[in-house]
Amino acid sequence: MHKNFKNIDKVVFGAGALDQLDHILSEKRNENDMFMVFIVDNYFKNKPLADRIPNHDQDMVFFEDIDQHEPTTEQIDRLRDTILEEKGIPSGIIGIGGGSIMDVAKALSLMVTNEGSSSLYQGLNLVKKPGVYHLGVPTTSGTGAECSMTAVLTGPVKKLGLKCDWTVFNQVILDPDLTMTVPRNQWFYTGMDCFIHCIESESGIFYNEFSRAYGDQALKLCREVFLGPDSGQTPINNEKLMIASLFGGLSLTYSEVGACHAFSYGLSFVFGMRHGIANCIAFNHLKEFYGDAVDEFKEMVDFHQIDIPQNLSSGWSDQEISKMADVAYNLSHMWTHALGHDWGEKLSKKDLMDIYRRM
Amino acid sequence: MHKNFKNIDKVVFGAGALDQLDHILSEKRNENDMFMVFIVDNYFKNKPLADRIPNHDQDMVFFEDIDQHEPTTEQIDRLRDTILEEKGIPSGIIGIGGGSIMDVAKALSLMVTNEGSSSLYQGLNLVKKPGVYHLGVPTTSGTGAECSMTAVLTGPVKKLGLKCDWTVFNQVILDPDLTMTVPRNQWFYTGMDCFIHCIESESGIFYNEFSRAYGDQALKLCREVFLGPDSGQTPINNEKLMIASLFGGLSLTYSEVGACHAFSYGLSFVFGMRHGIANCIAFNHLKEFYGDAVDEFKEMVDFHQIDIPQNLSSGWSDQEISKMADVAYNLSHMWTHALGHDWGEKLSKKDLMDIYRRM
Known about the structure:
2 copies of one chain form a homodimer. Chain A is α/β, with parallel strands linked by helices. Chain A contains 14 helices and 10 strands.
């Protein structure tokens, strides 16, 4: 059985495309209880972007702080309860922000129509009913959250996505101008999420020509953005990285992520570390999995003089390392892709703990 | 305003993916009057593929002959009337064949719910109601009809597509094994449709980084398939060309086709010439529009020893040439892309007639 992949329904791409948001929403304002919910990264509160949110009188706008932690099931449940109690089921949910905000918008669109805690639905195809219309406006590039079938949430017992066809956005607005003000470190860490998606996608048993076509093009764009004479946060590179993020996301969706994401999820679960930097911390030490790609990653780190935290494990307890290894070990779909269906014979929890101790 | 592009809802890719068709349809069999309509290229009648069509007792199967002409509005109206009179509105329409069959399936899915002749809807956003579920299984690679927003039809007065969001397939099954038996000339002509899409997409005012990302990757794949040591109809190249077709179609959808397609439409309208070969006949003589790409095209023609008809115009009447020039000249969106908004000042109908006389 080959995967049957759900696309984003509609995509707009181009500098200034955010200005088309109000027009795009106008067709959807007659559904359910006739109001829109905007979930916006708190970073944009009192910034110029906040004035460009096309909220009407009946709409709700939430500025969500996702600096301190990745999206949690508790956060989704709280937002959902507030919306339903105050106004009912919205016509649509619009996320404006980075990968975390994309995931909040995606999860929330499902949870306004599905009962109980979002933690009940962490996994593949556990969601029972379609959600409401949801639209993503990414303001960082690299996560692939704009096109993935997953809304990744950290719950009481695991970090795992709500994954189903209904998770995928109905509409995405790709406006590269919005990424102009991303701080340099975050630009790099998030961009590396895309680079790592492509490397993981190509390094495993689920790789295929469809994933290769998207992944090769995304890698080419990453190299133009992060290496070479025209590297850096320029308008043209912002366009390229936004497309690379989409293509990298599509490559991994039709293939799978691997070892780096497994380690990264452990770091995020135990220490609340943001996904982009957690990926970089892990990838830095995964040469036995990803070979030359790790050298290329280090070249990009040096080129942009980015600080990748080292020697973190000296401050970690055995219990914390053990817990991270548990989280990582349980992501069997990632290990199956990376090492094959017999991965359990090739890799033990102790191996994972040893690798965490290098970080 | 940037284009808001409608994606195919769902895509399966991989050798043997046709076997998933019955399972995919099973979810849709409860809609409307509960039967499916299969539109299959007559080429497959009494061939092994015909036995793999998963039609149930209540379904209708039409083997359509599209060898003699491209899809016409009359053909669509006839099929629609037969289906509605005999069984009502189907749950879905499934097209299995090349670009023409894709276009028939797309047009028919719209015309079972929209009244009057399909010739009423030739143009942009003229269709009034959404169609029924429709699924495409391409058996040739290159046309991009699997992903385009257009069902191209030849009507009594023009060759022009039914173009709207609803035209796009709900599901596409990309099974590269199905292209294994495409005759060599057709493989080449249809593959060149993809090559030409990419060149036209990049040679005009609507080009952008989104189109470039898809187009560059499609061109890279075309070059691997049609030039170099591993060129030819091999299983891996069939995979590559199928993806190139999709990517080329997405590149042009977010940009536009240009001069070659305008000339090609004239050839098809007046002489009923198939789209792939008509493109090749025109592109061969368009060096002032497409420069080095025409030399590269000729290199591929030589490499595969393909016969591109020459000196056709010696058999054409002035009236026929004039009619072709009229058809081509009226495709203003293509000329705007190719030459700019002031294209009317740069190009006359006489110029078009002169170029037709070279062919």
